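Quick one: Methyltransferase domain-containing protein from Jannaschia pohangensis, structure tokens please.
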Amino acid sequence: MRVDAASLELGCVAGILCGMATADQQIIGLYRRHAEAWARRRTRLGAEKLWLDRFLGHLPQSPSILDLGCGSGDPVARYFLACGATVTGVDTSPELLAIAAQTVADAEWHIADMRTLDLGTRFDGILAWNSFFHLTPEDQRRMFPIFRRHAATGAVLMFTSGTGHGEVIGQFEGEPLYHGSLDPAEYRALLDRNGFDVMRHVVEDPVCNQQTIWLARLRNAG
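--- reply ---
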């Protein structure tokens, strides 16, 4: 993950120097403490709709989707449901999932940590949008077999990452917010090793709030 001048001006240097180890361990608690604030901010689709539509465009009709780090279910899970998908959402915050259960009732919600997930079910699509990048680089490496374990034949995986290997601290509600990333070459190697072919990789997409996005498909066996 590149640390540019703008990030430094936002105070990331202090986080990098003294708060990194603590911040990555506080992600779960942060989203639990500020669940209502997060839910208030995430009510409508924005620039990500283009990529969600691309993701859906590679899935079969009425697909099953696993949403990792689903938060309150708004706006992403709600949009998938409106498009005819069945959605299983996973998040570590009971508070966010309580909001999801009240406001997006047609999905299935699981309080669980994606790093140890084993639902015993395979999905047509797996999404880790603005959630996977809260894991440390080492935890991210361990996620790829978990993606594979939950992927149905020909499943599509989409996730966001940083631009290069590293760690950066941002802020949410006045608290440090951890982000980690691997190098693009390592992401490609991990995807390939676990049976996924990269269909699209856009670095700092100018039409999607500078997000770096990966779209991959599980290749057919044999």
